[in-house]
Design goal:
- With 296 residues, the chain is of the alpha+beta class.
- Helices cover 36% and strands 30% of the residues.
- It has ten helices and 13 strands.
- It has helices at 23-33, 37-57, 108-112, 142-151, 187-199, 203-208, 214-221, 243-251, 255-265, 283-295, and strands spanning 4-10, 15-21, 63-70, 76-82, 86-91, 116-123, 130-135, 157-165, 171-181, 227-234, 236-237, 267-271, 278-282.
- It is globular, with a radius of gyration of 21 Å.
- The N and C termini lie far apart (48 Å).
């Protein structure tokens, strides 16, 4: 079944909870960027976190960009998300494989690093986008998204992100959840959630071993009769690049740069960071772009 995300309210609206199966989404990203195990796990968790964050905070045509810049071996991760459930992104160093950590899991912290920042820039259709930034607290990313929500959005939350990478670097399963505490949640409810979070297996194990759906992940976290499903939305990795978009970017370059491309290079090639597609521009096309930019 195609990937999807479930939104819910729990305990009569005291808790907001989301869960997502993003196996195909993360798998598509892995194929496009040829990420190796450590990069696959870190990039996948970043995509899942952005899906959950976008679903909880955006509507209409709003969009956001999540940047994770740590001192680990993969360098920067950039992910774009929107309210429609699509994400796209890239990782600076996709070919990173590390020894397993002390828990015999992929060393995401080693790949991301523990010194650096996580920033979220939201384009809400206003004059200026809004950016919130927090330091990395663990490099495991679930804790880092949790910390962002607590510090920048002032929402007590718990975020679980999980990616199972096969021996050939492809994605076995990927998914996650987000729990947000709303005003009116009692101490008893919070204690119950805290206890449950210590007991539950990784999301990837729930999907891979038990075949759990996003709804069933929520029912693992909370009593089923306390969960009210609000919406199911498809999610996917989707790049909206086009030759027209790259032409607009070229038009913003200094005139001397365009003249150099025309006279010396006899054309230009643009490559999309997000999906790897290549777009060729010949001398005639570049001249037209330059002339139209000068007239604007």
């Amino acid at each position: 079944m195609s990937d999807y995300l479930v939104k819910s309210l729990v305990y009569d609206g005291a808790i907001r909870a989301y869960a997502v199966d993003a196996t195909e989404t993360v798998g598509e990203a892995q194929k496009l960027h040829d990420t190796w195990s450590a990069a696959s796990a870190a990039f996948g968790r970043s995509l899942i976190g952005t899906l959950l964050l976008s679903a909880s905070e955006l509507s209409g045509d709003e969009k956001m960009t999540v940047k994770i810049n740590g001192d680990g071996s993969i360098g920067a991760i950039v992910v774009d998300g929107n309210a429609k459930g699509t994400v796209k992104g890239y990782v600076h160093e996709p070919h990173v494989h590390l020894p397993l950590n002390e828990k015999h899991k992929i060393d995401v912290k080693g790949a991301v690093g523990s010194q650096g920042f996580l920033s979220v820039t939201k384009d809400l259709g206003l004059k200026e986008p809004f950016t919130g930034q927090v330091p990395l607290v663990s490099g495991e990313l679930g804790e880092d998204f949790t910390y962002y929500l607590a510090k920048s959005e002032q929402i007590p939350s718990a975020v679980g992100l999980s990616v199972f990478v096969e021996d050939d670097n492809t994605i076995g399963v990927a998914g996650g959840f987000m729990i947000q505490v709303l005003p009116g949640a009692s101490d008893e409810i919070l204690d119950e959630i805290e206890k449950k979070l210590q007991e539950i297996p990784l999301v990837s194990e729930m999907i891979r071993k038990d075949g759990k759906t996003p709804e069933e992940i929520l029912y693992t976290l909370f009593p089923k009769d306390k969960v009210k499903i609000l919406e199911k939305m498809p999610v996917a990795y989707e790049c909206n690049c086009s030759k027209e978009r790259f032409a607009e970017a070229l038009a913003s370059l200094p005139k001397k740069d365009l003249e150099e491309m025309i006279e010396q290079d006899k054309g230009a090639e643009a490559v999309c960071h997000f999906c790897g597609k290549k777009y060729e521009f010949n001398e005639k096309e570049l001249t037209k772009i330059m002339n139209e930019a000068n007239q604007a």
